[in-house]
Design goal:
The protein is 74% helix and 0% strand. With 280 residues, it is mostly helical. The chain has one domain. One of its GO terms (biological process) is intracellular protein transmembrane transport. Its main location: membrane.
Length: 280
C-alpha cells in the first residue's frame, strides 16, 4: 500500500521536473533573444526621467483650457511658468563594478520570460492536464492565449500609464538644494518588480474564469467576499514603502477582482436545475 501511494507522488515530481527544465530552457532562449534589444528597453524605462510624458501634454491641454476660459486664474497662479522650463537631462548612476552588466541581464531575463510566456503557460497546463477531463483539456488554447494577453496587457499598462506617474511624482520633490540622483539598480529593480506584479494582477480574471468553469468558485462566492478582497489588496499594497506605489497597486488589484466577479457571473459553470433534469 505504501508503494502504491509513493509511486504516483514520484511520477508527479518527475513530471514537474520535466516541465521546469523545459520552462528554464525556454526562458534562457528568450533571454538570448531579448539581450539584443535590452538597451532599447532600458532607454524606454528611462524616458520619464526627462519629465516630459503624456502627463505633461495632458496638463498643457488643461492649462490652455483654463487660459481661454479663466484668464484671471491663469495669470494669478502663473501657470505658464511651468512650461517655460526645458526638459532636464537626468541620467541613471551606478556605483559598483559590473552593475550595468547585471542590470542588462535582469532586463533580458524579464523580457525573455515575457517573450516565451505561451511556452510557460503551456507547460503549466500540461502539468495539471492529467487531473482534468477530456472536455476541460480542450481549453488549453484559450487558457494559453488569454493568460499571455492578460500578462502582457498588465505589463504594458504599468509601463505606459503607471510608471510615468510614479516617476513624475518622485521628480516633483525636486527643489533648490534637493535634486534627484537615481541609482541604476534601485531604479530598474523597482520597475521590473512592478512589471511582474501588474502582469500577475491582470491574470486574476483568467484564474477566476478557469475556477468558475471548473465549478470551484462562483459569482456568489466572489461577490460575497468583496470586503476581504479589498482588505487583501490593501495588505499586499502595504508592503511597498511609498503611498503612491501602494495606491497604484491596490486600485488595479481590487479592480481586477471586480472584473473576476463579473467574469465568474458571465462565464461560470451554470447550475443544473433538478426539476429540469427530472422533466427531461
Amino acid at each position: 500500500m505504501a508503494d502504491e501511494k509513493v509511486l504516483p507522488f514520484i511520477e508527479h515530481l518527475v513530471e514537474l521536473r520535466k516541465r521546469i527544465i523545459i520552462s528554464f530552457i525556454a526562458v534562457v532562449i528568450g533571454m538570448g533573444i531579448s539581450w539584443n534589444f535590452s538597451n532599447d528597453l532600458l532607454t524606454f524605462v528611462e524616458k520619464p526621467l526627462t519629465g516630459k510624458t503624456y502627463l505633461t501634454e495632458l496638463k498643457k491641454q488643461v492649462y490652455n483650457e483654463v487660459k481661454e476660459r479663466y484668464p484671471s486664474i491663469y495669470s494669478r497662479y502663473k501657470l505658464d511658468e511651468e512650461f517655460k522650463t526645458s526638459a532636464k537631462e537626468r541620467v541613471l548612476n551606478y556605483s559598483a563594478p559590473l552593475e550595468p552588466f547585471f542590470i542588462q541581464c535582469k532586463i533580458s531575463i524579464i523580457a525573455g520570460l515575457i517573450l516565451v510566456l505561451p511556452v510557460l503557460f503551456h507547460q503549466v497546463w500540461l502539468f495539471v492536464a492529467p487531473g482534468l477531463t477530456g472536455r476541460e483539456r480542450r481549453m488549453v488554447i484559450p487558457f494559453v492565449t488569454a493568460s499571455t494577453i492578460s500578462f502582457c496587457a498588465g505589463a504594458a499598462f504599468f509601463l505606459i500609464v503607471i510608471w510615468p506617474v510614479i516617476i513624475n511624482f518622485s521628480l516633483s520633490y525636486e527643489a533648490q538644494g534637493l535634486q534627484s540622483w537615481f541609482n541604476l539598480s534601485a531604479y530598474v529593480n523597482f520597475c521590473l518588480r512592478l512589471i511582474l506584479m501588474f502582469g500577475l494582477i491582470f491574470e486574476l480574471p483568467v484564474l477566476a474564469l478557469l475556477l468558475a468553469r471548473f465549478g470551484i468558485v462562483n459569482y456568489q462566492l466572489l461577490a460575497r467576499n468583496r470586503k476581504y478582497a479589498l482588505l487583501a489588496s490593501s495588505i499586499i499594497a502595504a508592503f511597498h514603502a511609498d503611498l503612491i506605489t501602494m495606491f497604484v497597486i491596490m486600485v488595479p488589484l481590487y479592480l481586477m477582482y471586480e472584473v473576476s466577479v463579473w467574469v465568474a457571473l458571465i462565464f461560470g459553470k451554470k447550475k443544473i436545475n433538478p426539476s429540469e433534469t427530472r422533466t427531461g
